[in-house]
Amino acid sequence: MLELSNISKSFGSARVLDGVNLLIPPGSRTAIVGPSGSGKTTLLRLIAGFERPDSGQIMMRGRALFAGDQFVPAHQRKIGFVPQEGALFPHLRVGENIAWGLSGSRHEKRARVEALMAMVSLDSKLAQRWPHEISGGQQQRVALARALAQQPSLMLLDEPFSALDTGLRVATRKATADLLTQAGVASILVTHDQKEALSFASQIAVIRHGRFAQIGSPFEVYSQPADEETALFLGDALILSADVAQGKARCQLGDIPVDNASISGVRRIMLRPEQISVEPCDSAAGLPQAHIVDIDFVGYLSTLTLAFAHTDEHITVQTVTRPGWLPGMKVNIQINGCARVFAL
């Protein structure tokens, strides 16, 4: 559907994108994630045609959108764009917003608007409302319907759910993902919310300092991150130093199998919270590994600060809350699965 080759962009002396390459398969959902200032929105604007790259090539379905002196303007690209907070026209009613840019008779436009509103699960009665008279989630659906009205080949979503309350954000994101899949429209979501990216996407591209640090499936980038920074950006993780040899890592938690038996030496390893179980120590089972120093309870999950008898260092782990946990309680740690070992 879309291919970016060696895309670079600078604003003055600041290089925002540096040799970016990305493939977007037809009908796929791609999430571009990264910290503020990493180049996410700039990349989206280049794809949309709002900005011109300094170098590289943008191809869509074999057609050059940007290559050398060739540049296709935004209104000729058949790319939909849903900005943050919808950006609806305040002087137009909901139906008029959706119909904006449509051609045809008044009857044809009305029929098309009704079909689009049904597609995004909006009551047709809302067509006569003003944007300020509907909820935030409804506004985002109107913005999506307006973008879909142009029958785009590709949909760009620039943090469109960030202004919504948590529950509404999840429901709107799920509805948007389902709708785009049903319509067969490839999409690119820009977000700094890792949970949103993991939930929405079939492909995740992690951008940092104007370059992609890793591109892969949500499960791949979460469970096999390329480096520590990527690991921590995509969710909670316990990172430890370890002596790796023969497929095992010797660290504070004992000997843990690793995901790459060919790596050896002093390395850094990663465990996700779901791999760590903290169990009260059974006095009959021998000496405890650690004791609880502090507990940060946040409901289903708790963050425990643990101290170990054989070292002065503390480690912090996030795990499922158990009743009866108290500071000073002696515990053992069980590890499920393999640790991710980072290459140098």
UniProtKB/TrEMBL annotation:
GO CC field: membrane
CDD domains in the record: ABC_Carb_Solutes_like
Record keywords, A-Z: ATP-binding, Cell membrane, Ion transport, Iron, Iron transport, Membrane, Nucleotide-binding, Transport
One BP annotation, GO: quaternary ammonium group transport
Residues making up the signal peptide according to the UniProt record: none
UniProt domain ABC transporter: residue ranges: 2-234
Domain of life: Bacteria
SUPFAM superfamilies with a match to the protein in the record: MOP-like, P-loop containing nucleoside triphosphate hydrolases
SMART domains: AAA (SM00382)
Listed PANTHER family: SPERMIDINE/PUTRESCINE IMPORT ATP-BINDING PROTEIN POTA, SPERMIDINE_PUTRESCINE IMPORT ATP-BINDING PROTEIN POTA
Upper classification of the organism: Bacteria, Pseudomonadati, Pseudomonadota, Gammaproteobacteria, Enterobacterales
Xref: InterPro entries: AAA+_ATPase, ABC_SmlMolc_Importer, ABC_transporter-like_ATP-bd, ABC_transporter-like_CS, ABC_transpr_FbpC, Mo/tungstate-bd_C_term_dom, P-loop_NTPase
Cross-referenced Pfam families: ABC_tran
Protein name stated in the entry: Iron(III) transport system ATP-binding protein
GO molecular function, one term: ABC-type ferric iron transporter activity
